[in-house]
Design brief:
about 0% strand; mainly alpha; single chain; about 270 residues; about 70% helix; ABC-2_transporter-like; globular
C-alpha cells in the first residue's frame, strides 16, 4: 500500500508540474508553434539522410526503404514519447553541480517526479509527429500479412519501447549522482540509441547486435518486433515469439532503473558530494 501511495503521489506531482509548464508554454502560442515545427524539421532531416542513401542503393543490409522507414518510425515514436515524458532527466547533472536539487528534496513530492516533469517541453511532440508520419508512410508501402498478432504487437511495441527508453533516461540520471557531469554519456545511450535503431540490425556486427539485445536491450524497441511483423529472421536466430517478451523486458528495465535511482539518491550528500 505504501508503494502504491508513492506512485499515486508521484503521478499527481508530475501532472501538476507538467501542467504548469504547459500553461506557461501556451501563453506564447506563436513561439510554441515555431519551436514544435523546429523539432519536427530537425528530426525530419534524419530520415532525409536515409532517403539519400537509398537514392544510391536499392537495399540496406537486405532491407528496403519502406522496411527501414518502418524501423525508423517505431524507434522515433517510442523515443519521442519517452523524451516528452521524462527527457528532462538529463538536466540532473546541472542541478547536482549548482545545488538546486536540494530545493526539490524539501518539497513534499517524489524527487523523480519533480525532476522528470521539470521544464516539461510540449514542443517535443514534433518528434513524435514526424515519426508517426514516417511510420504511416511505411505502412502504406509494405505488403504485410496482418494477422491479429501482428496488429496487437504494434501498440505493444510502441508502449514497451517508450518504457525501455524511459528506463535508460532514469538509469543515466542515476549515474550522474556518481559522475555529476555525465549528460553526454547519458545522451550516447538515449539519442545515440535511437539513431542506432533507425538502421537494420544486419548492417552491424554480431557482437554489437548481441550487446543491444542481451546487455542494453534496445533491440526490443523495434528490431525484434519489426522482424516479427515483417516476417524477417533476426540476425541472432532467436525464435519469433521473443518479440512478445518486449513488455517484460521493459518492465525489467524500469525496475532496475528504479533501483539505480534509489541507490544514487541515497548516496547524494548535497552539492559537491
Amino acid at each position: 500500500m505504501a508503494e502504491r501511495g508513492r506512485l499515486v503521489a508521484g503521478a499527481r506531482a508530475y501532472g501538476l508540474i507538467a501542467g504548469m509548464w504547459i500553461r506557461s508554454t501556451m501563453a506564447y502560442r506563436a513561439s510554441f508553434a515555431m519551436t514544435t515545427f523546429g523539432s519536427f524539421a530537425a528530426t525530419f532531416f534524419d530520415f532525409v539522410a536515409i532517403m539519400l542513401m537509398f537514392s544510391r542503393v536499392r537495399a540496406l543490409g537486405g532491407w528496403t526503404l519502406p522496411e527501414v522507414a518502418f524501423l525508423y518510425g517505431l524507434s522515433a515514436i517510442s523515443f519521442g514519447l519517452a523524451d516528452l515524458v521524462i527527457g528532462s532527466m538529463d538536466r540532473l547533472g546541472r542541478r547536482l553541480r549548482d545545488g538546486t536539487l536540494d530545493a526539490l528534496l524539501v518539497r513534499p513530492a517524489p524527487i523523480l517526479a519533480q525532476v522528470a516533469a521539470d521544464r516539461f517541453a510540449l514542443r517535443r511532440l514534433g518528434r513524435v509527429t514526424q515519426g508517426s508520419l514516417v511510420l504511416g508512410w511505411a505502412l502504406t508501402r509494405l505488403d504485410v500479412d496482418w494477422s491479429v498478432g501482428r496488429l496487437l504487437l504494434m501498440p505493444v511495441a510502441l508502449l514497451a519501447g517508450c518504457g525501455i527508453f524511459c528506463a535508460v533516461f532514469v538509469a543515466g540520471a542515476a549515474f550522474q549522482f556518481v559522475a555529476q557531469d555525465a549528460a553526454e554519456v547519458q545522451n550516447a545511450f538515449t539519442y545515440g540509441g535511437t539513431t542506432l535503431l533507425q538502421y537494420p540490425p544486419t548492417v552491424f556486427g554480431r557482437e554489437l547486435v548481441r550487446g543491444v539485445t542481451f546487455v542494453l536491450p534496445l533491440a526490443f524497441v523495434n528490431w525484434l518486433p519489426a522482424s516479427y511483423i515483417l516476417g524477417r529472421p533476426y540476425p541472432l536466430d532467436l525464435p519469433g515469439w521473443v518479440a512478445w517478451t518486449t513488455p517484460l523486458v521493459a518492465a525489467g528495465c524500469c525496475a532496475l532503473a528504479g533501483l539505480a535511482w534509489r541507490a544514487g539518491l541515497r548516496s547524494y550528500r548535497s552539492t559537491g558530494s
